Amino acid sequence: MSTATRYTPIAIVLHWLLALAIVGAFGVGLYMTELPFSPARLKLYNWHKWAGVTILALSALRLLWRLTHRPPADAPMPAWQAKAAHAVHHLLYVLFFAVPLAGWAYSSAAGYPIVWFGVLPLPDFVPKDPGLADTFKLLHKLSAYGLALLVLAHVGGAIKHHFIDRDGLLARMGIGRA
Predict the structure, then answer these.
(1) What is the pLDDT of residues 18-34, one digit of tens each?
(2) Please, which domain of life does this record's source organism belong to (predicted)?
(3) Which of 106, 144, 149, 170 has minimal Cβ neighbours within 10 Å of its Cβ?
(4) What whole-number distance in Å separates Cα of residue 171 and Cα of residue 101?
(5) C-beta of residue 99 within 8 angstroms of C-beta of residue 143
C-alpha cells in the first residue's frame, strides 16, 4: 500500500478532465437526440463524437498512469464500503472505454465517419450495417446511462465521506485540506 495521502497532480488533473468531459458529453448527448434534424444537431453530434474520442484517449492515459503510480491507501471504512468503492471504480474504468467504443462502433455501422476535431479521420472498425448500428446504438445508450449512474454513486460516496464521515477523502483528489 502507498503511504501517500493524495493522488499525484497528474492523476488529479486526469480525473477532473475526464469528469468534465463525461458530464459534458452526457449532457450534449441527451440534448442533441431531442433536436429536429438541423445543422445545429449535426454540429452537436460531431462535438459529441469528438468528446467521445477525447474521453477514450484520456481514459487510456488515466489507466496507464494508474497502473504505473500507486494511489493513496484507502481511507478507513468498513470492509463492505471499501469493496463497493473498488467495484464502482473498476466498473467506471470499464465504462470509460465501453461507452465511447460503442458510440464509435455505432457511428461506423451507421456509415457516419468520425473525423476528430475535423482533422483526423478515424477508421471504421465495424462494417456498415443498419442492424448492427441499432445494436451498438442501444449498447451506447444503455452503457452511457450506466456510466451516469456510477458517476452519481461515486459522487454520492465522496459527499458521504466529506459530510458524514468527515475523513478528508476529498482532499485526496485535490479538494480541501487533508
Answers:
(1) 999 999 999 999 999 99
(2) Bacteria
(3) 149
(4) 32
(5) yes
